[in-house]
Amino acid sequence: MRTDPASAFQARVAKHAALADPARLRIVDLLTLGDFSPTELQVELGMPSNLLSHHVRALESAGLVTRHRSEADKRRSYIRLTAGALEGLAPGVEHDATRLLFVCTRNSARSQMAAALWRQVSDIPPTSAGTHPADRIAQGAIDVARRHGVELPEVPPRKLEGISGGDFVITVCDNAHEELANLGGIHWSVPDPLRLNTPEAFEVAFNDISHRIHGLAPRLYAA
What we know:
By secondary structure, this protein is an alpha/beta fold. The chain has helices at 5-19, 22-31, 38-45, 49-61, 110-119, 139-147, 174-179, 199-216, and strands at 65-69, 77-81, 95-97, 99-104, 126-130, 167-171, 186-187, 220-222.
């Protein structure tokens, strides 16, 4: 089905209008890196909650962001860019890194898939770890990666023990992010596929991570 050109044009107008405000543009710049809770955005921007809520509602109305509840603390929510929100617009932030460190709770699915996907698109070496590692990599993660032509390493999950100065840290689950509140880095709020433990749940997680990997890779360069 073809998109109505007039509707597509009006959608572009709405996005540009929303991004014309400096505060909203800064929010979107941050969200191109990862997901933030409203409190985290307040701290990052030095902005009162009522003003932040106003800007987030404007971005939601323009179809640029969505929000959802944390899987860990149900009182908490995360704001993220909608898929394809900035197509045709170039983010203005770049970072250097000597290594990417993907972190989740068990290091059995999301962080393993993220590291494997990163190896396919960048020369910056990746690694992964968990705050409370499982005994083995989840079979669902192995299967979905294999369906997409990606092989996960045959190594047991490992515990997060140390971070090097040049590490670019990415938490890929809400529990790890909230447990490691002072870790720094960025956060991707990827739903835990093991909660449902179905092929569909792993497919959703894999595609979410893959989309984020391909968006981040052009913006990182080797230190």
